[in-house]
């Protein structure tokens, strides 16, 4: 499983399971309730070999550009073996929005709102990942606070590489109850981010579950 733990921006050898026990990361545990992905996820139910969203049997076709993009990934991945090896590089959002540790909480909040995103990666001048801030973290700290974000983010985080299997990321989301994972290259530089909503769009696009195992 190509997932790594970073501490203060540097990859460490400590086992992921030792630092992030299955069941949730405390500092990010509340973030699930803040994401539309959590609401959507709760509405998923199993139907034979696929996930479907409860609701009317037929509805207007979704012509959203993002949905079409995910549909194209699904169509290309018709072979079961190829699909099970679908990598993060095919799904991650890039470039990714970052902030510095000294950024005031209120400015981080305003940036999230203006960009219409739910996460910001905290990085240093070398673009190494230092931490991850969610909307829930900022709300808990007080979105009008002028304290720096370095006072509220966890200095240890889990990161993936572009080659990491999407299946491994999905498992990590469930086991650690987190909603997003930064993606880093071989030089430990941030190159993207993957969120639960990205995986949900992939499921909605029609990718069968049997191709993930």
From TrEMBL:
SUPFAM superfamilies named among the record's database cross-references: CBS-domain pair (SSF54631)
UniProt cross-references to PANTHER family, sorted A to Z: CBS DOMAIN-CONTAINING PROTEIN, CBS DOMAIN-CONTAINING PROTEIN CBSX3, MITOCHONDRIAL
Where the record annotates domain CBS, the positions are 92-149, 153-210
Record key words, sorted: CBS domain
Check the record and name the InterPro entries matching this protein: CBS_dom (IPR000644), CBS_dom_sf (IPR046342), Diverse_CBS-Domain (IPR051257)
Annotated signal peptide: none
Biological source species: Neptuniibacter caesariensis
- Tell me which Gene3D superfamilies the record gives: CBS-domain
Q: Which Pfam families match?
A: CBS
* The keyword Iron-sulfur is assigned to this record: no
Protein name in the entry? CBS domain-containing protein
Entry keyword Repressor = no
């Amino acid at each position: 499983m190509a997932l790594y733990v970073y501490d203060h921006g540097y990859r460490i050898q400590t086992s992921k399971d030792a630092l992030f026990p299955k069941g949730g990361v405390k500092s990010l545990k509340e973030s699930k309730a803040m994401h539309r992905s959590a609401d959507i996820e709760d509405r998923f139910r199993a139907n034979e070999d696929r996930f479907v969203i409860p609701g009317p049997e037929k509805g207007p076709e979704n012509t959203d550009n993002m949905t079409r993009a995910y549909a194209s990934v699904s169509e290309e991945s018709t072979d079961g073996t190829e699909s099970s090896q679908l990598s993060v590089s095919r799904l991650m959002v890039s470039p990714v929005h970052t902030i510095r540790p000294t950024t005031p909480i209120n400015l981080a909040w305003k940036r999230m709102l203006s960009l219409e995103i739910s996460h910001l990666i905290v990085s240093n001048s070398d673009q190494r990942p230092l931490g991850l801030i969610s909307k829930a973290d900022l709300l808990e700290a007080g979105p009008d606070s002028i304290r720096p974000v370095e006072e509220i983010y966890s200095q240890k985080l889990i990161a993936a590489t572009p080659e990491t299997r999407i299946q491994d990321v999905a498992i990590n989301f469930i086991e650690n109850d987190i909603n997003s994972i930064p993606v880093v290259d071989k030089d430990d530089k941030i190159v993207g981010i993957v969120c639960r909503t990205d995986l949900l769009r992939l499921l909605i696009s029609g990718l069968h579950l049997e191709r993930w195992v």
